[in-house]
Amino acid sequence: MKGKRALVTGASSGLGVAFAKLLASWGADLIITARREENLQALAKELRDKHAVDVKVQVVDLSEPDGATKLWDATEGAGVTVDVLVNNAGGGLHRDFVDAPWDKLLRQLQLNVVSLTELTHRFARAMLARKQGWVLNVSSIGAYTPSPTYATYSAGKAYVRDMSEAIAHELRDTPVRVCCLCPGGTLTEFHQAAGHELPKIFRATFMSAEDCARIGLDALFAGRRNIISGITNALSMFLLRFLPRRLIVALAALTMGKPKGP
Ligand SMILES: NC(=O)c1ccc[n+]([C@@H]2O[C@H](COP(=O)([O-])OP(=O)(O)OC[C@H]3O[C@@H](n4cnc5c(N)ncnc54)[C@H](OP(=O)(O)O)[C@@H]3O)[C@@H](O)[C@H]2O)c1
Hints:
- It is built from 10 helices and 9 strands.
- By secondary structure, it is an alpha/beta fold.
- The protein has a single domain (5-256), classed as NAD(P)-binding Rossmann-like Domain (Rossmann fold).
- The strands form 2 sheets. Strands 3-2-1-4-5-6-9 form a 7-stranded parallel beta sheet, sandwiched between helices. It has a two-stranded parallel sheet with strand order 7-8.
- Helix 3 (67-74) runs parallel beside helix 4.
- It starts with a strand and ends in a 6-residue tail after the last helix.
- The structure holds NADP nicotinamide-adenine-dinucleotide phosphate.
- NADP nicotinamide-adenine-dinucleotide phosphate binds at residues 10-16, 34-36, 61-63, 88-91, 111, 138, 140, 183, 185-186, 188-190, 193.
- NADP nicotinamide-adenine-dinucleotide phosphate (NAP) binds at residues 10-16, 34-36, 61-63, 88-91, 111, 138, 140, 183, 185-186, 188-190, 193.
């Protein structure tokens, strides 16, 4: 990764921090982005000190309609080339669809779906023109199961998975690789940010962010188009193919539990 630059979105916590740390440890220069500047600056300092790599910080809200354009303008658009794009920023809201405030759902769709699509489009084109590049889009195992109380989240993640696999096929004969990582439960701030109180037993089965990020990056650089984190998750998603869809949705509802409030 020496001489290459990676852009990691959502690098102020969880998986994004793990992606950034791994890429820096492999020698990549970085652009890290999210909303919480303090977290980003602390990570940037740590990575510069530890790995002697160049780390730029960009504070951008990707739930804003112009967030992705701003990020492009401040990076590749300003001549800072990006060889590896990790579209990791994302979030959910643990709420029944009709109880969720529309503006929150809209922001979630902008973040998880629209901004991710715009960034993939802009950066993949630039990578193709330079004849080299890698894009890792972070989806979820929620992509495989319509999930009550996370209806728009799981549908958005299905979009991310399907779009990524289709683009990976379109680009198969080019030097640009696109891969989709579908994490299962991972120890990050995700559920807290979504207002989801998980039973402790669930968290005990979760993977570390470091392991999950490594699985995603290994798959990307191995040329895979889709990877589910962990053998148990992969096997479960495979077995789901043989169940009736209504049952899958009912099982997902059981797993997600009831939201705390309207
Ligand atoms: N953890 C899991 O169990 C799990 C399972 C499946 C998939 N995933 C996916 O993994 C990805 C990473 O999430 P995580 O688990 O690491 O959760 P996390 O710790 O909550 O991290 C989410 C990251 O996204 C950033 N982000 C949130 N809203 C943003 C906005 N409006 N604009 C820009 N950045 C924003 C956050 O930064 P700021 O708050 O500073 O903006 C943070 O850096 C997400 O796409 C999530 O859907 C997670």
